[in-house]
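ok trying this again, last paste got cut off
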Amino acid sequence: MLSKSVQWLFLFAFVTFSCQQHKPFDRYTSIADSWDKHQTIRYDFVAPDTINPYNLFVNLRTTTAYKFSNLFLIVELNYPNGKVSKDTLEYLMAKPNGELLGTGFTTVKEHKLWLKGYETPFVFDEQGTYKIQIQHAMRQRGEPNGIANLEGIIDVGFSIEPLSN
């Protein structure tokens, strides 16, 4: 028979691991040197289900080389049966004093940016494989061509999380 301390250890481990939030999808792509304006980050994923609500996030890791207070992204979500949702989104990336927002104690900050689920819960309405495409759309004020190579973004990711209760 197991001792009381071993039983408590198993109980603690069970509670700890069962309470962790399971993410149906969570991936990152590393960006070498700078993010080229023609480089599209793509992920294919299978919808977890068509019943429960989820939050969808674009995740970024930035360094102090990121010199802008905002970020424009073009995000396209392709549904299994041909429907396409495409948005140009703006995110606040820094405080007015230039300090990067996000989490982290070093020169690298992590940003979790809402894609879907913020205002109304997002439910996948089709079963099958979805595709997400993420591309930056940054430009200098007054310059129509955009920034060819965006510096300071080192990873671009996408995650799906169950709706928190």
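PB: full thing came through this time. The radius of gyration is 19 Å.
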